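Possible regression after last week's pipeline update?

I re-ran a chain I had predicted before the update to compare outputs. Posting the input and the new output here so someone can diff against the archived version. Not blocking, just want to make sure nothing changed silently.
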Amino acid sequence: MKIHKWLSQDILFHSSGQQSVTGVTSVDDSNSYWRIRGKTATVCERGTPIKCGQPIRLTHINTGRNLHSHHFTSPLSGNQEVSAFGEEGEGDYLDDWTVLCNGPYWVRDGEVRFKHSSTDVLLSVTGEQYGRPISGQKEVHGMAQPSQNNYWKAMEGIFMKPSELLRAEVHHAEL
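New output (post-update):
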C-alpha cells in the first residue's frame, strides 16, 4: 500500500468555491505540510500526545486553511468533497476530524484514519486524477466505508517529544 501526501493549492473547486486538497505519492513540496491543532475552540498544547479517538484540526502551513469537509459532492469520484477552508487557522466545526488508530496514542510510524467529526466520512484517496492545471494529482475525498484507501501515515515533519508530565503519567503506575 502506498501512503499519499495531501497538498493544498490555490485551485478552487467549482462546486463549493473552496481551495482544493489533492494527493500525491512522492513530493518535495512545501504544500504538503499540515499542522495538528486542537479541535475548533480548544487548545492543544505543543508536545501533548494525540489520543486515538481525539478530535483535531489539520491546518495547512502555507495557506493557514484547515482540512474541511461538507455535504458537497467531490468533482471526480462523486464521493464527499474535502477542501481547505478558513483563514489563519480559523474556520468552523466542519474542520474537525477524529483520529482513529490502534493503541492509546497516535504514534509517529503508525497508520491512522481521519474521520470527519460532523459527517462521519473517512479521509480517502483513490485513483481519480485531475487534469490541468494540477495534472496527475489525485482527488482527496471523504468515503463512508473503511478501506485501504483511507489509511494515512506521518512521513516527515517536526515531531515533539511528549511533555514531562505526560511521560511520567504513562510510565508511573502507583496505586
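Follow-up from reviewer: compared with the archived run. Strands lie at 5-12, 19-24, 34-38, 55-60, 66-73, 80-85, 97-100, 113-116, 122-129, 138-143. Marking as no regression found.
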